[in-house]
# Entry
Amino acid sequence: MRAANEDNYVVTSSVFAVADGMGGHAAGDVASGLAVAGLAQLGLAGVVRPEEVRRHIVRLNGDILAAAARNPEQWGMGTTVTGLCLVDFAGSPHWVVFNVGDSRVYRYAGGSMEQLTVDHSEVNELVAAGKLSPAEAATDPRRNVVTRALGSPTAPEPDIFVFPLAEGDRFLVCSDGLTGELDDGALASVLASWDDPRDAAASLVRAAVVAGGRDNVTAVVVDHVPAHTPPADDETAPRKVS
# Structure
């Protein structure tokens, strides 16, 4: 239903992220584009550690403010950012889940769906305080008000979670245009219906558009597939985390 798309995403060999821009005429699409372009640089210089992810996201806040200072018509632009990054932790590969704002990361494993991120939103704080029920929050007019975003005068502190890799895990990284239309049960049903992560992501977007499509919808699905060593006469490269 929106004429402009302020969502952006990035997929590299080690970073999978979504950013949902805010500001409309104040160039939310520029802010989200700067965020994902910056995240694409993670891992290019070698091994990434969890603290580097946090510092990198904080620097992105400064990049967005600097861009707005150079282009006054973009002043006030901002963006959420959330995703996964492969890192080295205690000498072994781990995932870092990072988040600023109300875009989300889910893990789907063993038939169960789990939201890994916490929404930085006004309604989520009201739910946590017992002043709104989850059902009321879904339709509350304040549901789009975020309490942390990149582009803020004071850099927001990103949430950072670290956990080990586990074969068979499937992750969903998405903007609130998806979760605003489909509840967790519907998301899990789609993730369970498709083997190929690209098909799952496309199906999620289609389902959200059919359900109303009131906001931009972006979904990235990431599967941790088993490593495979081919026979000596097979020149196919081993599969790794994708």
